[in-house]
Design goal:
The structure is a homodimer. Chain A has about 130 residues and is mainly alpha-helical. Chain A has one domain: Winged helix-like DNA-binding domain superfamily/Winged helix DNA-binding domain (Arc Repressor Mutant, subunit A, Orthogonal Bundle). Chain A is built from six helices and two strands, in the order αααββααα. In chain A, strands 1-2 form a two-stranded antiparallel sheet. In chain A, strand 1 and strand 2 form a beta hairpin. In chain A, helix 1 crosses helix 4. Chain A is elongated and about 60 Å long. At the A-B interface, helix 1 and helix 5 of A face helix 1 and helix 5 of B. The structure holds iron/sulfur cluster (2 copies). The site of one iron/sulfur cluster has 7 residues of chain B, from helix 5. The first copy, chain A, binds a DNA duplex (30 and 30 nucleotides) through helix 3. Chains A, B: This is RrF2 family transcriptional regulator. Chains A, B: It holds the Pfam family Rrf2. Chains A, B: GO terms for molecular function: DNA-binding transcription factor activity. Chains A, B: InterPro entries: Tscrpt_reg_Rrf2, WH-like_DNA-bd_sf, WH_DNA-bd_sf.
DNA sequence: CTAATAAGAGACTTTATATATCTATAATAG
DNA sequence: CTATTATAGATATATAAAGTCTCTTATTAG
């Protein structure tokens, strides 16, 4: 079990954008170069962030990506969910079993992880 | 990112063994049947638990698996680590960067998850 | 001792997912 | 119109998970 590289790229891109001049679009080429990843692949990842409303994309010359208006509220968990999906880490075969003991432990542990990631925002990393 | 099925099988097997008469070996065939998994595959998973000293295996007629002496101390985290390995969930490209901000957040969140899993033991599920 | 039983080991196959790449299309600034 | 830049979809490659098969080793009931 590991976070995907795509999640890593998404987090770094958000951090880069947060450190840039606001409202000035940054092209995927530049973002990809800083992370040693192909622009087309990064583009595909960033499109997920666009669809979740975390960043805006601007086509055409001088286009690129900018952070969305509400970017200061975006948490690590939001970004991870956008890339990895929102389903639980633990797949139980019988969700209907109300007596289940294993599931409770696994889900409560996952909740601790998510709480921490929900409380950390990209904007926390920028404000010094 | 998801826990593997192998982890699921390992957790369930530990729970089954904990509910059985102590010291009476349970064969892999029986354990596999209860989980709808092939015996040879489950065997491969259980061998990992044997190597970590969590369970004992007994060959030959009337053989099978028993919990190890210290089984009451075995945590969820121990079992998960035995199957999934102990490496971090977050792979950072530059571990050497002391200024890293993303890594700190990811590792501290993982720590919260692990703390919870470390505090929950299989024996907690059996004692009523 | 022998035959049946049961775990372990290694090679292999299959399936699924992650990680890309390639090409074509759409939007926009100048 | 043309150069630039994002988006979409098909395809390809790599890696890992999940499962099978066969042979070996250990134990014990009889
Ligand atoms: S014990 Fe819980 S985790 Fe296991 S099969 Fe039942 S419901 Fe699922
Ligand atoms: S910022 Fe942190 S996570 Fe990102 S490359 Fe640097 S050390 Fe790694």
């Amino acid at each position: 079990m590991k976070y995907s590289k795509a999640t890593n790229y998404a987090l770094h891109t958000m951090l880069f954008l947060a450190m840039e001049t606001p409202n000035k679009p940054v092209g995927v080429h530049q973002l990809a170069e800083r992370q040693n990843v192909s622009p087309t692949y990064l583009s595909k990842i960033l499109t997920k962030l666009v669809k979740e409303g975390m960043i805006n994309s601007i086509s055409g010359a001088n286009g690129g990506y900018t952070l969305s208006k509400n970017w200061e509220d975006i948490s690590f968990l939001d970004i991870i969910h956008a890339i990895e999906g929102k389903s639980s880490l633990f797949d139980c075969c019988l969700y209907s079993n109300p007596e289940c003991v294993i599931k409770d432990v696994m889900l409560s542990a996952e909740e601790k992880l998510e709480n921490e990631l929900r409380n950390k925002k990209i904007s926390d990393l920028v404000k010094k």
